[in-house]
Amino acid sequence: MTGRQGLAGLRPVSATRLAGVSTADAVHSALQDAVMSGRLAPATRLTEEELARVFDVSRTPVREALSLLEAQQVVRRDDRGRLVVAEVTADDIVETDAVRQAIDGLAARLASEVARARDVDHLRWLNAELARVSGEGMAPLAVSAANLRFHEAVCTVGGNRLLLTMMQALHGRVSRFHGTTFTVPGRSAEAVAEHEAIIDAIEAHDADAAEAAARAHIASSMRVRTQLLRERRSKP
Fold it and tell me: Whole-model pTM?
């Protein structure tokens, strides 16, 4: 796929950029969403000049956005040193799964040790929001965003800022996985139920159960993601 064909679905960011959000962040978000949604396919070439033209911005914010995406491994250098959208391998998913289980497990454990009633209420509200946006048939990426808010809220309850930074960085890495598990029928309902098990353990201040529930939830998500990868590769 050529860069021109692959970039056809992108639009200028000026009209959609929110107040307080830098141009580089807006470009980064737009490219990240395009990769995650599959509108930018693996191996699509990305150049500063063409992206600046498509987004109607200067090359500087594009360069900053591409640098961050490269650090997150959303894009990579090909054999000729050109930036392209990175392919996702089964090994990438396995490696990410192992780290996510450790981070989310620890986040749930820490939360269970200090959670107050209002923390539990907030987590239940966030999970209800996930169920709501899923039930209203919103775009899978919107459902995915609601899901990430829940996970980061669990981490916030535990009060470990370094762990939250690590989780957010890992979520950035997951964004390179083309598509989302919430495109699979029934997955959102499963995730809501798995979240409830995590919340119940946190409310009971059962650290072992909270960690086990969080690890099981991530393992379930990654099994679905691995299946999506197999299905995508089997298509002609």
Answer: 0.74
Could you give the CA distance from residue 13 to residue 42 in angstroms, rounded to a whole number? 22
- Determine the Cα–Cα distance for residues 31 and 227; give it in Å rounded to an integer: 24
Nearest-angstrom CA–CA distance, 42 and 59: 23
Reference 116, options 212, 209, 202, 208; nearest CA is: 202
From CA 16, how far away is CA 12, in angstroms rounded? 8
Q: Residue 129: what residue type?
A: E
Under 8 Å between Cβ of 84 and 76 = yes
Whole-number Å distance between alpha carbons of 25 and 98: 29
Q: What digits encode the pLDDT tens for the residues 76-119? A: 899 999 999 888 778 888 888 899 999 999 999 999 999 999 99
DSSP percent split of the chain into helix, strand, coil, nearest 5 = 70, 5, 25
Question: Measured between alpha carbons, how far is 169 from 8 in angstroms, rounded to an integer?
Answer: 28
Query: Count of H helices and E strands in the chain?
Result: 10, 2
The kind and range of the H/E element at 77 are: strand 75-77
**Separation between Cα atoms, residue 200 and residue 65, nearest integer Å:** 39
Long-range pairs for 196-203: beta carbons < 8 A, 24 or more residues apart? 196/127, 198/108, 198/154, 199/120, 199/123, 199/124, 199/127, 201/108, 201/112, 202/108, 202/111, 202/112, 202/115, 202/119, 202/120, 202/123, 202/154, 202/157, 203/115, 203/120
**Residue whose pair of structure tokens reads 């961050």 in the numeric block:** 68
Q: How far is CA 113 from the centre of its chain?
A: 27
Structure tokens at 40: 């930018």
